[in-house]
Amino acid sequence: MKNSYLFLHVAIVLAGFTAVFGKLISLNEGLLVWYRLLFTSIILFLILNLFRKPDRIAFGDKYSIAKIGMLLTIHWIFFYASIKYSNISIGVVCYCLTSFFTAVFKPLIDRTRFKLSELLLSALTLLGIGLIFHFDVSYRLGLVLGVISSAFAALYTIYNERLVKRYDSMLMNYYQMIGGTVGLTALLPVYLYFVPVESLFPGWKDIAYLILLSLFCTVGLYVLFAEALKRIPAFTVNLSFNLEPIYSIIMAFLFFGEAKEVNTAFYAGLLLVMTSVALQSYVSVRKVVRF
Question: Which residues contact 25 (CB under 8 A, 6 or more apart)?
Answer without folding.
Answer: 32, 202, 206, 209, 210, 213
